[in-house]
């Protein structure tokens, strides 16, 4: 659960009675979002692997010093 949501939950608890439905909604919303995380993480891994491959290829080619340098074409 994101820190912001945890803080909101803690604020609701500290506020006392009467906000129980809102408290329940926070973990319920988080629960609904969790199944999408594996696909998102797999996409992140794919992008990371691509970047690693680009850098390895450029290092092997001997021209890695120009990769994404400010002011230089990509």
- Computed over alpha carbons, the radius of gyration is 22 Å
Strand content of the residues, in percent? Answer: under 5%
How would the global form be characterised?
A: elongated
Helix/sheet category = mainly alpha
Count of separate DSSP helical elements: 3
Question: Can you tell me the residue ranges where pLDDT is under 50 for at least 5 consecutive residues?
Answer: none
Q: SSE order in H/E notation?
A: HHH
* Mean pLDDT level: 91
DSSP strand count:
0
Helicity, as a percent range: over 70%
Termini gap: 37 Å
Structural features, described:
About 70% of the residues lie in helices and about 0% in strands. By secondary structure, the protein is mostly helical. Helix 1 (about 5-15) packs antiparallel against helix 2 (about 20-35). The longest helix has 25 residues, at about 35-60. The two termini are about 35 Å apart.
Q: Secondary structure elements and their pairing?
A:
Blueprint: H1 3-15, H2 20-33, H3 37-61
Helix pairs in contact: 1-2
Concise overview:
Helices cover 70% and strands 0% of the residues.
Could you name the key traits of this structure?
mainly alpha; 0% strand; 3 helices; 74 residues; elongated
């Amino acid at each position: 659960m994101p820190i912001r949501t945890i803080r909101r939950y803690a604020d609701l608890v500290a506020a006392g009675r009467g906000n129980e439905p809102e408290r329940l909604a926070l973990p319920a919303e988080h629960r609904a979002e969790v199944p999408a995380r594996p696909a998102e993480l797999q996409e992140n891994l794919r992008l990371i692997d691509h970047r690693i491959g680009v850098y390895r290829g450029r290092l092997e080619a001997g021209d890695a010093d120009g990769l994404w340098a400010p002011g230089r074409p990509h």
